[in-house]
Structures are given as C-alpha cells and as structure tokens.
Amino acid sequence: MPALAKSKYFPPAQLAEPEGVVLFGGKLTPEWLLDAYAHGIFPWPVFDGTDVIVWWSPDPRAIFELDGLHVSRRLARTCRSGMFEVSCDRDFAGVIEGCATAGGRRHNTWLSPPMIAAYTRLFELGHAHSIEVWQDGALVGGAYGVAIGGLFAGESMFHRVSDASKVALVHLVNHLRSRGYQLFDIQQKTSHTASLGAIEIPRDEYLARLSAALEVSATFGDHLERTPHRS
Length: 231
Prior knowledge:
Oligomer: single chain
Low-confidence stretches: none
Number of helices: 7
CATH architecture of the largest domain: 3-Layer(aba) Sandwich
Radius of gyration: 17 Å
Number of strands: 10
C-alpha cells in the first residue's frame, strides 16, 4: 500500500498534538483544503471572533463503513415512501446554508462565512458535492462533503423535517458505494452517528486506508445512483 505523499503545507498528521491539532493559521483556498483532505487533515475553527484557522487530524478517526450503515425498518420505509425527493448537486448553496442555520445553529456554528465561501468554491471546481432532500418543492434536509479519488469526507448534514438528514445519509451511502468510493470519513463520532453505524478507527489505520482510497478513480457523477440499500 503506497504511503501518503509529503504535504506541501502541513506537517505529517501523525505529529498532531494529543487533542488532534496539526497546525494553526494557513488559508482556506482550494489548494490548502485539497492538500489537507489528501493528508487526513481538515479545518475546524474553534476561536470565536478571530480569523485563525485550526487544522485537525484526531485519533481515533470516525468513519462510516460503506456496508455498515444501520437503517431501521422505519427509516427504510420512509426512504421508499415517496414522501421525499432526493437529488445531488442541485442546490449546494442551500445545503451548506441549511447546515449553518437549521436547528438553532445560526450564529452558533463553525460554518462561518469564510468557511461557507471556501466550500462553495470547492463545489464550483467539482471537488465538493451535496445531497438534497426535498418535500413539496422545499429543501428540508441534506448533506455535503469533499471528494478526492475514492475518499468522500462528509462535512455536515441538516434537517428541517424529521428524518430528512437520515434520508440524505442513506442515499449518500448508496451513491458512494455504487460509484466505487472506498472511504467515507466523518471526522468525529457523535451519539447520533453512532446510532447509525459510525465507528472509530486508529489514525494510522485511517491514513493507510486514505492512501489506498486516493489511488481509486471514483467520480461523484451528476445524478444519484438508485441501488437499494443493503441493511
């Protein structure tokens, strides 16, 4: 398995501080962001009222195995019910805005205007993608992330209607598996993602799997693959 190439901007992720910090400062340009994700690193601002960017590589690292998503019978019925329409890359701006504002997140989120602008630029360049969930023509849920080779780095999801974010996740996992992705990174596990099957793996294992995933020529495409979920 090939090792990760040396980063242009960052020290090796293995040299992160115990809490996972790799670097303070830097830029939110496409070059910096793509280099970060290709080396197991991501930005996560933590200082209110400052422009300082903090770059992280936590140990352990949380992922969804692409054949390990837990879909309850009720959620599977919801996905099949037709109550939602699901699309991809139709409204990236709406999804990232939803992730920044839904559920009381407005003015209380790491998704600052510079972060939103940075990921929107990645979308414009074809490196970031969104899943949208619609009900009666309104955007009610979704998820977005960054794709490089066979890696999909999930960044955030939101819902305005019950189960909409879970429906987005089910469709995203199906799509990634169908398109040949190998690694679905979600950075840190929460009780919510754990209930859906998220697991933690050591950072060294994550970096090895990342190296292999980057060798895969997966493409996100411009429409959702509709293969049934294997629960």
